[in-house]
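Lecture 7 notes: from sequence to structure.
We start with the chain below.
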Amino acid sequence: MKADRFILSLQIVMMIVAGLSCGRQNRSSAVPEDPGIHKIDSLEKAGYEIIDLHAHLKGGLTMEQLLDHSRITGIGYGVAVNCGFGFPIQNDSSLSAYYHSVRDFSVYHAMQAEGREWTEMFSPDSIELFDYVFTDAMTYFDAEGRRTRLWIKEEVFIEEADSFMDYYVAQIVEILNYEPIDIYVNPTFLPEQIAGRYDELWTPDRMQKVILALQENEIALEINSRYKIPSAGFIKKAKEAGVRFTMGTNNGDNELGYLEYGLQMIEDCDLTPNDFWKPDGKLLQ
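Predicted structure tokens for the same chain:
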């Protein structure tokens, strides 16, 4: 009987170990030749947690499909809902209803705060439902009081690039100083009219103003794979100042990818596991 119990106990232990390793085995056997997955696997073995904290259920992408992608690639996910003026989520009741519809999924739950009105549209109690909050500086009112969305060419008015940049940087700093966020996303984005002048217009002085605001307010800086921003130069300066980082896709459709730009910046900018920020108090399964 003792031998039988020992054999049974050994079988149970082997089943547990097999279950714990199942995800990694499935990942490596699913696409063994994929260089992106191989890179993620190598970084995880070196102590990095590869987490995309800026994913969306867009283009027909379901939570189940996102979790399947996570199991195959090894990427953990934070799923964000867009909240603010002109978006489907515009009040506490709709924000709470969304959260309770997804809270049981094994992802981080994020609130993407849109525009500058969001702090008056949602209560602190509703915001606190989420694991973290992030925003960008792509929507603001320009010096003439016009609502500006930087990704819409017709809403961007640039008479002189340096004047535009000085005003834009001031808007970023104000957002970082006064809005209760954890991550600054889509950072250093430039509108189409001047996007080709990124290295010229993001001068060391302008970089430093944004980095100082990030540092003083303990806000993480996203490395964005969709727009491939911020530049390596910006990331290195932020690292020197002690700013922490996240990685994000900001997918506009159902393609999540492998965080290619973020992984490249880990290598190019010598980022360590300790350079990254993640929400507290929750483990992704």
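Points to note: Confidence is low (pLDDT under 50) at residues 1-26. Residues 2-30 form the longest helix (29 residues).
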